[in-house]
Amino acid sequence: MASVARINVTPVKGLGLQHPNEVDLTERGVESNRRYYLISGWRLYNGMDFGPLVRIAPEVDNRTLTLRFPDGREVEGEVELGEPVTTHFWGRPVNGRLVHGPWADVLSDYAATALQLVRTDEPGDGSDVHVGTMLGLASCERLGLELGDVVDPRRFRMLFELDGLDAHEEDTWAVVRIGEATVSVAGAVPRCAVTTQDPDTGVRSLDTLAGIRAYRGLSGDGKLDFGVYFDVVEPGRVRVGDAVQPV
Length: 247
Fold this sequence. Notes:
Layout: E1 2-7, E2 22-25, E3 36-40, E4 43-45, E5 57-61, E6 64-68, E7 74-78, E8 80-89, E9 92-100, H1 103-111, E10 116-120, E11 132-136, H2 137-147, E12 160-163, E13 175-178, E14 181-190, H3 208-216, E15 225-234, E16 236-239, E17 243-246
Parallel strand pairs: 11-12
Antiparallel strand pairs: 1-12, 1-17, 2-16, 3-4, 3-10, 5-6, 6-7, 8-9, 9-10, 11-15, 13-14, 13-17, 14-15
């Protein structure tokens, strides 16, 4: 039977991933996941703009935000919300508020561009399209065969990585029981150049997109699909090792 192999979340969109042993899955997804995001010139800014953002480890504890940088610096403070801002996430408007404090300056220095930090008004709004994503490890192994290399599944920054499946078996699902929750598959995830970047350094290291295209081709709308989106039908807790089964 398939099971949850790893959980990937981050408090700040585009920054380093965390791997909790369990999460509460609500109709909004994992509500703390991607609650914060970066903008540059009022435009969403993420790993497509600067891959080494993944080297920053974020942590949120109540209203305290800590960013740990690869040079050992830690920048910590209590979150103070400022003026409202609306950011377009690939055509979808997301409402939030600027975050005042030390983070914008250090992030701007790190990325060598002017950045601001935003917190979404509503939990779950920081997701790209649907509230969650999942990917079978066997799909990464199949891509690795195409590329002649090991494909780290963290490249795809999926909420749930699943073990015990055939390659791309997740593409065939409709409704799935995962831990205590039930989710409905909401279509394939189109991939971008972020997946070519090493998940630890953010530096381009593997042409995942060419590999996907070589054996999967383009989707009907010209995209390179890998993994699936989902929406939550029945909330519940999901733990590493929990069973995953179509219903």
